[in-house]
Amino acid sequence: MNIFVTGGAGYIGSATAQALLNAGHSVTVYDSLVTGHHAAVPEKAHFIHAALDDNNVLNKALTSEKFDAVMHFAAFIEAGESMKDPGRFFHNNFVNSLSLIESATRAGIKKFVFSSTAAVYVSSEQPITEDSPLGPTNVYGQTKLMTEQTLEWYRQIHGLHFAALRYFNACGALPGRGEAHQPESHLIPLVLRVALGERKSVSIFGTDYPTPDGTCIRDYIHIADLVSAHLLALKALDQKDKLIYNLGSGTGYSVREVIETAHKVTGKQIPTIESARRAGDSARLVASSEKIRRELGWKPQHDNLQDIITSAWEWHKSHPKGYEE
Known about the structure:
Number of strands: 13
Radius of gyration: 19 Å
Largest sheet: 7 strands, parallel
Distance between the termini: 33 Å
Strand content: 15-25%
Shape: globular
Structural class: alpha/beta
Number of helices: 10
């Protein structure tokens, strides 16, 4: 197939683009490089450096050749930041997604795989299923939910086949590919930067949550498992017009547990600073991925936190400045 990948210079998008190429597909990466890295774009992918809100360039790109599917990874991901600057997130994550969906539909593209998030759900003490109550606690999650709802209307009205993959916490590294956001907001790379001596400490935002150690609990999923789910979903859209799946390991780890595991993996002390809660953070988000396991045969291969952090540590040690070398 010929696949149009937005955000293909980012962490998950570039890894998925490479996997698509490895599977024999053709790939065009469309990325503004506002948060992505040109060095992360797979060598054999066609690259278009442009913003999603540049409608002329986007429309030209989508009609320049026949694409079979869009895989959409281009979004701002910092949940805390979304509560400080909501307009920026609504514009980039929702308005630009709407433009992309409309342009893709007009171009006759029939399949759309969307990078969604567990942040669309209400926090729960029980493993979250696809039928769990929806209720974003931050603007980031709201923009993703609105995009999912838009895709549903385009399915009903235009026959667009779509998959919404609701990630929990993406993490880990693949050979030559690791996590290097601009700015960095994810816990594991922040902790590892402390271990590398690039930061003095890592902040713990909230120690009074209703969890065993008072810190937030999250489900961490290795990027290799995320990528494999995307390829399975893309293939499944040949037969089905709507797929909504959680992607997670099913195991929750607290912020303190992640820090302690990183200490064991690196052998380095990781000083912490206890800070107030951030607006929009849920106490606990852990996945039930039973549905995608049952329907598509997906199974995480890297669901051990120590193994995940070890893979990330190896990448960060060899890329202390991320992709900027």
